[in-house]
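Pair request: fold both.
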Amino acid sequence: MIIISIVSIDKRDFLPSKTLYLLRAGFKGRTIKADEYMIDLANKIYLEAIKLVDSKVLLRTYGIHDVSPLNLPESFSRCLEVTLFVSTLGKRIDDKINEYSNNGKTLQATLLDAWGSESVESINERVDERIREKMRRESPTKKGTRRFSPGYGSVSILENIKILKKLGCDFVDAKENSGVLIPVKSTTCMIGWC
């Protein structure tokens, strides 16, 4: 087992594309247009969100037989190793989304939720790039599958529970009956190595 441990994340890693943030929030079109109030609010939420992030990533690479009984995607069938990782923005962003929702500030909650979703995906993309770069240096012949998260295809979201347990993660949890991660702005991912 290769342990890469907790990955250092800095601001550049979690800042989402403003265009993707606005598209996820429901703004439409190639060039995003909105009235001045909406643009000001979207910018305010973007800046507020940055201060709420307490991002962490934990990852490990295992031999394929060491992740049993984890249900892997079919595309991993020829892989010899699997990297598992969990990423989170932390609890404060969830708390702020809930605060906005509970106080009837639906628009602010929606914008912050969209920002959080794009931000955690931005972290995943950076981590993915770093893992692939490290693997290329260590073993240039290894080929990685696409990054995959439970809840898609034939891999149940309940696999989140097994992944967190396997990683020994203590900063993200999963609801036992649904597999939903807590904090919500968290993900588990896997990459197979062939």
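--- second member of the pair ---
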Amino acid sequence: MAEITLGGNTVSIKRSRFKGWIELEGIRENIFKAVERSDVDEIADFILLYLSTALNISIGSLITLPWKEVATAYSIAVSTNYNIRLLPFMKFSKKQLDDERDVWDYEGRMWYSYANKIADRYKWTLDYIAELEIDDAFSLIQEILVSDQITKEWEWMLSEKSVGYDEATKKSKYIELPRPDWMKPIPKPPEKVKIPKFMLPVGNIVRYTTRQDVAN
């Protein structure tokens, strides 16, 4: 929890619960889009909306405040809410998310999509899910995704599609069901090896720090 001063009053900022956090992330994404369009008015409007949502105060009470106070409060609110544990399934680039956006997508769908997964698995109400701690909610979502993938792999293994013919060996082979990227092992970096002396290039070695055209 953090504290800020707005209009001479001390206001506490707590990290939002699950539904509120997702709403804030949607507003933050709109801020990024407004920045890309260089739309100053929209940037200001969304920053005020973010603060209003995060602090549960009216936008009208924020408009009259000095912009420096608003900008500082926004920065603290973002850092307070975005300090979450990043799980493997969450580590997608923005481009990947944009490329995979469904044609039936709509503003605010992320909350309903996640809530649907949790409600379907645990039979909890939307009100209960909305008040989950962020880390707990996303941890449960990843466990649901892992469980669903393992179930699909078991069903795939029992189907005829899991067996193929290898032309090279002239034998049958097992075809694995592909896993999402976040479930695949992370490749280890290559080991460093010393180059034998006879493989070193002949001549003087000129470092970039000693070259005037580079160093200057």
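Observation on the second member. Residues 1-83 form one domain.
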